[in-house]
Amino acid sequence: MNTGSSLKFSSLPHGKSDNLEVTEGYTATTLIRWGDPLFPGMAVFDPNTLTAEEQKKRFGYNNDYIAYMPLEGSSSHGLLCVNQEYSIARLMFPEALLKNYGAALGRIEMAAHGHSVLEIRKEAGRWRVVQESRHTRFLNGLDTVFILTGPAAGHARMQTSADPSGTKVIGTYSNCAGGKTPWGTVLFCEENVDLYFSGTTSDEVEKGNHDRLGIKKKGRYRWAEFDKRFRIDEEPREPNRFGWVVEYDPYDPQSTPKKRTALGRLKHESATPVACPDGRIAIYSGDDQKNEYLYRFVTAKRWNPQDRAANADLLDEGTLSAARFEEDGTLRWLPLVFGHGPLTPENGFHSQADVLIETRRAADLLGATPMDRPEDIEAHPTTGHVFVSLTHNETKTKANKANPRTPNPHGHILELIPPSADHAAEVFRWEIFLLAGDPFDAASGARYAEGIARNDYFSSPDNLAFDPQGRLWVATDGMDEMLGVNDGVYAMETSGAARALPRHFLNVPLGAEATGPEFTPDGTTFFLSVQHPGDNKGSFFDAPSTRWPDFDPSLPPRPSVIAVTREDGGKSGNRMLAAHTA
Ligand code: FEO
Ligand code: CA
Ligand code: CA
């Protein structure tokens, strides 16, 4: 085995368990589960009697992105900011209730979506949620009001019968990944928003727009049956109010969350801010669908490290670009600016608002490079190199050099290299960091460092995190489908002899996706979202494939956030992931 890696934990075998598994020497504890009370004095969770009003006060479904925001710089006391991406009715409700699906259950689903803020504290080596906290809030999908800001706010295409101002939106849906700004706000991203709407529209302006985003006559959710907001024949502009990046201040429980339209409208997986040498902020984001694009937004102004309030609306002004990967290993950022190139009235763009509302179509016209489903993006904490997960594209028919396999069932990770760490530069270099899949199957085309062990390869890279030592942690989504084993977490160096040599750390239970990886600033705790446990074919509330984490016959599986620490971490004072020797 290649021993150049600073990661010393022993590799976990690939798993098929109905339970969570972490490599030896570490403990995973469940911090909060779907339905757990956010506030003191609430009853024990019972999914059979849940109401929408109650769900608003309980932890939402399918937790995804996690941001740990320290309180007073602490790595043992902070705010946990968590996305609740989507709902799965067949795992949330018993058959007896589902038979009569209507507004009551639909409104619970809406209320289970959003983004929550929890205060957490580590005492005697164990994390707990502080229910008696002034910080607790749930920005939910049922009745939280979000303000639209930036160039598309208030535009006629954002106005609806319920909101003639075009600036106030109820709810947020499909909140996948996110990011943290240098001034301590949190970004979260609206991803698969097409699935919430149903119908067809005769609106000449919006028809092509909705088709390009993928809105179908019958959406995945049934909310259109009881709420006309989700019927595009009646409210053709409502979908334009979703598909944005949201910014809010977790330290101010009264702060209004803002949908920042300058960052474009697409199926945003993530939004990763990085400071440029001149003080402007670059934000990377991927559009997670087959053959969609990678984007970058650069603020017009510099951020102000001395005056937090001065950065409040920094994200409302700047330049959004789409990426074109050239065959010669350069990457060119193509600005999506109204009036430039093809982004003109002849092509249906009459303002920057039009360009932002139809970001995908604008990027089509500029010749951006189709990608194998861009998921998370993270910049290395010291080199500034930018790592991009392309999860998979198993039905692809046409390759390009940055997405070289056709089809690509296992995905890959790209490394983008900005010149002199200037994230605002027009031209970068790029390399393939690794090609995922089974390296012992020559036909897979997988490529890692020499010496990869049988336990350590993966498929379908999704969310990424760097630990304080600059090692890349990859959470996967799709290994059950692509390799027949559970999803998990894999860690690796990004330079030196052990570059792209993964080591297998954790398996999530059957049917689950590993997502939202996040470290405390000192690296001693690793948080992870275990999303959609039990989401296997034929698995439902009354007969699920797992009842993780409770294994209580009266409860379905429950999406949960876990905290992973070293078993002797408290005693030895060793950094969890640096000091373990196998
Ligand atoms: Fe919500 Fe692209 O994963
Ligand atoms: Ca994801
Ligand atoms: Ca995913």
Radius of gyration: 22 Å
Level of helix content? under 10%
Q: Please give the count of helices.
A: 9
> Mean pLDDT across all residues, rounded?
96
Largest sheet: 9 strands, antiparallel
Distance between the termini: 13 Å
Unreliable spans? 570-582
> Which structural class matches the secondary elements?
mainly beta
Write down how many β-strands occur, each being a DSSP E stretch of 2 or more residues. Answer: 29
Question: What are the distinct ligands in this entry?
Answer: MU-OXO-diiron, calcium ion
Shape, principal axes of CA atoms:
globular
User: Strand order within the widest sheet?
Assistant: 14-15-16-17-18-22-21-20-19
Strand content: 25-35%
Provide keyphrases for this structure:
binds calcium ion, 6-stranded mixed beta sheet, 582 residues, 29 strands, globular
SSE map:
Layout: E1 21-22, E2 26-33, H1 52-55, E3 63-70, E4 77-84, H2 89-92, H3 95-98, H4 103-111, E5 114-123, E6 126-130, E7 137-140, E8 145-149, E9 168-170, E10 175-180, E11 186-190, H5 204-213, E12 245-248, E13 258-260, E14 272-275, E15 280-286, E16 294-302, E17 318-325, E18 330-335, H6 352-357, H7 359-366, E19 374-379, E20 386-390, E21 412-417, E22 427-435, E23 461-466, E24 472-476, H8 479-483, E25 488-492, E26 503-507, E27 513-519, E28 526-531, E29 560-566, H9 569-572
Parallel strand pairs: 8-13
Antiparallel strand pairs: 1-26, 2-29, 3-4, 4-5, 5-6, 5-7, 8-9, 10-11, 11-12, 12-13, 14-15, 15-16, 16-17, 17-18, 18-22, 19-20, 20-21, 21-22, 23-24, 24-25, 25-26, 27-28, 28-29
Bound molecules: MU-OXO-diiron and calcium ion (2 copies).
One calcium ion binds at residues 176-177, 269, 375, 462-463, 515.
